[in-house]
Hints:
It contains nine helices and seven strands.
Amino acid sequence: MIITKKKDFQELYENIKGYKSFFLLGCSECATLCGTGGEPELKEMKEALESLGREVTGTFVAKTGCQVLGTKVELKPFKEAIDKAECIIVLSCGAGTQTAVELYEDKPVYPANDSMFLGNMTRLQMFDERCSLCGKCILDKTGGICPLTTCPKGLLHGPCGGMKDGHCEVSPELQCAWVRIYERMKRLNKLDELRNLMMEPKEWSQSQKPRRQYEKKEKTKK
Ligand code: SF4
Ligand code: SF4
């Protein structure tokens, strides 16, 4: 999921203080789980704006804010409220904000959140980055642990010289990613694979932005 955190309200307010009326758009997926764009956060934002004498013409939590067509359909019943608003504030990730930009070309749209990373939720509202979407996954070679992401240096060929007692020199509170890989491969009886691992140079062209995926799924042949 995409991990977001709320912008400081004052920072947002600096951007929107010239407008009198707002429509608030959240997202029921990642932003809701992060506590940055669900019903409670929309209510909180509405109250904050109203306490400053602003009008909130409507609020809506989209099912999946980054899904442009689905969000467009969901927002149809809110046409009047959106037309009445001078500005839209989006409480989701940057992708959700840009859905609103695409749907409302003539209206200012501002993000209420900062988008941080792709994360795993390990406990309630605790998130760890484990994949940086490199475009060419090597988890098949590293026991399912990503050194590109979980090693602060992104080392692909084993630990650096700073590893101490199994811990990372950059973030000593964490286990070294390569120690975790070693321990996992050992548990799986795959140390020979690790010894013989010849990692090819990383194919960075796979992560050149903006990335697109337009392949149509082939129908499964019976
Ligand atoms: S190698 Fe790491 S960053 Fe790349 S896709 Fe796999 S998990 Fe994600
Ligand atoms: S100690 Fe391990 S995780 Fe930390 S930077 Fe070095 S190789 Fe990466």
